[in-house]
Amino acid sequence: MSEATGKIALITGANKGIGLETARQLGKLGAIVLVGARDLAKGEQAAEVLRGVGIDARAIKLDVVNEADRAAAAKTIEQEFGRLDILINNAGVMLDSRDGGDGWPANQTSTTPLHVLRETFETNFFAVVALTQTLLPLLRKSEAGRIVNLSSILASLTLHATPGSPIYEAKTFAYDASKAALNSFTIHLAHELKETKIKVNSAHPGWVKTEMGGEGAQMEIVDGAKTSVQLATLGEDGPTGGYFHMGEPLPW
Ligand code: NAP
């Protein structure tokens, strides 16, 4: 038996990219994976692929910004399983222009349209807070609830403020600010839940070869899912309220 055997795991944005690979790896560890997808047909396709390799996968229609979808997902999980063990808030968007022309994104902070900021925060921050709040009663019913928030190294205020850091020139304001806000949610929720069995952590997957990662990305998807899987399967003595990449803490 692995540490995930029989666990009920919901992964948002699991129809492709890091989310799909996370579902595959958790499924291989014995979890029942709920493949969240805003387009149910894509979710069904992904779940079918996972079932083809022996994983207990079920698609669930979940546009994270849609309140009705969030409520319906909670109801389905409640009715079918009565609890949720693992929530991976993986769905995310990067809407900033990345056309810097010199290998770095253009820093367009002074002209970033407010609608870009708002839309980015809707998905990367508000939807995560809302979905987590909706599912918390089910996570409280787990023997060992685990919440993983897919952040990014680009959320690190310390590294952004440090000339010469690996991300110093990579200033995609809307995305970076939304993930910094997400990190704040991780810290605050973990503090509130510190006397419970639920652990809450932020993950930086690495710069991963997905649609979002783009052409420069160097990490294979199989490795990009490892941090999420590690944090989803933490033992009782594992950390909470942290920000990690491959087991190593990152500066906030
Ligand atoms: P991706 O390949 O672009 O996949 C993003 C996933 O999120 C897709 O399944 C997408 O669904 C879904 N999504 C977006 N908006 C959604 C919504 N409103 N409701 C439900 N699903 C939604 O990106 P990825 O690289 O796998 O990224 C996964 C997570 O890792 C993101 O949170 C990202 O910020 C983070 N991350 C990625 C990297 C990287 O290098 N790739 C680095 C740091 C952090 P559709 O297919 O329907 O669009």
Which labels suit this protein?
252 residues, alpha/beta, 8-stranded mixed β-sheet, 40% helix
Write up this protein.
Helices cover 40% and strands 14% of the residues. It is an alpha/beta fold and 252 residues long. The protein has an eight-stranded mixed β-sheet, sandwiched between helices. Helix 4 packs parallel to helix 6. The longest helix has 27 residues.
Summary of the model, kept short:
The chain has helices at 17-28, 40-52, 67-81, 114-140, 157-160, 173-192, 221-224, 226-232; strands at 8-11, 32-37, 57-61, 86-89, 146-150, 199-203, 242-245, 248-249. The protein is of the alpha/beta class and 252 residues long. Helix 3 (67-81) packs parallel to helix 4 (114-140) and helix 4 (114-140) runs parallel beside helix 6 (173-192).
